[in-house]
Amino acid sequence: MAYSLHANLRYRIIDRCLKDLSRPYFHEEIADAIQQEFDELGLDLDRPSKRTIDYDISNMRSGKLGYEAPIIFSKDDGYRYSDPGFSLYKLTINRQSAHDLTQTLLLMKQMSGIESMPVFARSITLLEQELQIKTEGCRPIIYYEESTNDLGKPWISILYDKIRRRQTLNIHYQPFDRQPRDILLAPYNLYEFYNRWYLVGWQIDKKRIAFISLDRIIDVNDSIFPYFEVPGFDIREYMAETFGIRRPDNASPQTIRFMVTKEESHYIRTKPIHRSQKLLDVHLDYDIYQLKVVLNHEIKYKLLSYGASLEVLKPLSLRHDIMGELKSMANRYGLETHEKFLFDISGEEPLYDISCSIAIVPNKETITEKEIRYENTHEFYD
Q1: Long-range own/partner contacts, residues 7-13 (CB < 8 A, 24 or more apart)
Q2: Is the preceding peptide bond at 315 cis, omega within 30 degrees of 0?
Q3: Contact call for residues 304 and 325 (beta carbons, < 8 A)
Q4: What domains lie within the chain, and their CATH numbers?
Q5: pLDDT tens digits, residue range 125-180?
Q6: Residue 257 CB burial class (10 angstroms; 0-12, 13-18, ≥19)
Q7: Rounded Cα distance, 255 and 374, in Å
């Protein structure tokens, strides 16, 4: 079975060579094309011999496989088809299918990082050639937002190849505000979040999954350390309970409950913050939602991004953390903050029965207008 699959792959590559009239193809050129394709696909196969290529061409010419390819040979042009329009895998598509395939290719070309990956760029070109589809000058119907972060993209193609070859890496990495350091990593995946690319893998010295931002990589070198793969690791399952990329060691998902104003609730309901989001309760002026995710930097700032339209109810640790951010922001803008807790929330964490207000008073040193107090109090019952 494996032999027939590999033989069929060779037939496809030979077919592509014989249709290429821009250069002659002899045994060496055909063998080079097959070897290059094997390498790009990550197949650990030997370079085909002259005998193998002769056998493949004979099978393609014969009728026993149903091909009956009109293959001719000359000393000047090498192997080619006597009929330039012939192909073993000629595909006939209607106008609507051609339009849909064109839009699919245009969509692929827009994907962040695709232009930095020659193997995919070649695949798109090959599809255009094989299906005789022209995307140049065509207007895409679907548009992706263009990424503004191009710093890490040059590493995408290199790291893709390292992952494909299961190569352990020594990565010279520059953290923010710290000295550069080396990371020994068995790479598993390339992961994109909010227009930023990360390399995901097993950090061998720390014995944990690590996310490395591509735009902080200085250099990458192969390591002689054996490649290690965590049994059953699946990036989708690993990230299912996480918003963003930070996941503290041994962290378990926690229930986050928050109140949202009616105006913002329409958006949050139609565009959930996370796949675990549930609508728990509906009121006249607000709705109550719940998430179950690992607490990290990203989820805190995602919730903060909704401003006064969203209030975190639990867990108390996250609520207090966000209150600290709000106080820091108020101080940054020259405002003083005073906390007033209407209930004792120092003991066992309640479900909804939390009521808290933050009074914000203008700093008289920077604002001389009439003192303004803002107080927002809510009560919730399970």
Answers
A1: 7/56, 7/59, 9/37, 10/34, 10/48, 10/52, 10/53, 10/56, 11/56, 11/59, 11/60, 11/67, 11/88, 12/88, 12/89, 13/37
A2: yes
A3: yes
A4: 2-81 (1.10.10), 154-232 (2.30.30), 254-362 (no CATH)
A5: 767 766 667 777 788 887 777 666 667 788 888 898 899 889 999 999 998 878 89
A6: buried
A7: 29
